[in-house]
Amino acid sequence: xxxxxxxxxxxxxxxxxxxxxxxxxxxxxxxxxxxxxxxxxxxxxxxxxxxxxxxxxxxxxxxxxxxxxxxxxxxxxxxxxxxxxxxxxxxxxxxxxxxxxxxxxxxxxxxxxxxxxxxxxxxxxxxxxxxxxxxxxxxxxxxxxxxxxxxxxxxxxxxxxxxxxxxxxxxxxxxxxxxxxxxxxxxxxxxxxxxxxxxxxxxxxxxxxxxxxxxxxxxxxxxxxxxxxxxxxxxxxxxxxxxxxxxxxxxxxxxxxxxxxxxxxxxxxxxxxxxxxxxxxxxxxxxxxxxxxxxxxxxxxxxxxxxxxxxxxxxxxxxxxxxxxxxxxxxxxxxxxxxxxxxxxxxxxxxxxxxxxxxxxxxxxxxxxxxxxxxxxxxxxxxxxxxxxxxxxxxxxxxxxxxxxxxxxxxxxxxxxxxx
Length: 420
Description:
The chain is α+β, with helices and mostly antiparallel strands and about 425 residues long. It is about 45% helix and about 10% strand.
């Protein structure tokens, strides 16, 4: 029963991500609609085979799908060829469940596909018990090691080179934050009724959390659509979402939240969190400065999330990254959720997703109303990278530093504006 529960979880992992792209004789398939129908039917039959523990039948289903993929027209094969490797991994599992080690190993090699569009390391680790017949085989272990180098995101982060704290501040621009009396930020404060949001909230930390949850509840996360045209500022983006027909992606949400904090006189940054090698996406959150704690705090409007240590102390992005690297405990707030629909799990969020996306970081050096739109054409963006690491993902115009102390310096107040 426990094994079957794991198989159902695997099904969700490998198929739900495909959306609606999921008849067993080879048939002539020429359209996407036909292929979708074929995959849906074979997926249902394979699930039934798992549930009934008829693993030989499951193996036949997987082979039939793999053969069918090879007969697809070129355009469909290019788009859905990954299904061959997907079903090759299921074939591996079915054969392991029949204790057919040699055949399972050959299927696993196909599933790996030399690291291109093949089985994910997370799937291999999640089903180690089923894959036990292959454990210790040199070919299997070699593939697993290669998968780990590209798919074990926590391991990759832990192997990243350390920072080098030798940046000369005079070689870089200073960070600055618009003051709350800026006319545009005053409009943000009024538009979002921020005084009522923080009224009675108590101390500074309570206010920071209240504003985070307010924006999280006000605008849903929508990662399927680009942010609205008309300017990357809080008012324009909130207006576009007012009728509930759309939301904002993580960058849009972080931008709205950032301007709300600035409107309240709280220094804040929009921080882009990037993987070593771009895999599907990155994530954007906020670093919010707490004067009472004297540190930047992790605030994620997409997930209504903040992070603490095991003693309840709020942590910064820098501290969370350090703890992921050295294994010290992390605690995710109970309130963390996605669109008030799904609870966010710490293993998925921190130890997988954010471990992937904390390899290097980027932010603007100037924060104000409409920061991102205003900043185009100027050299105002800086990336904090592990020493010796570089990437073509970033605009060569951007500043690159390896000094985390400089990057996370505290803001100071000067001439009605906050500068560092």
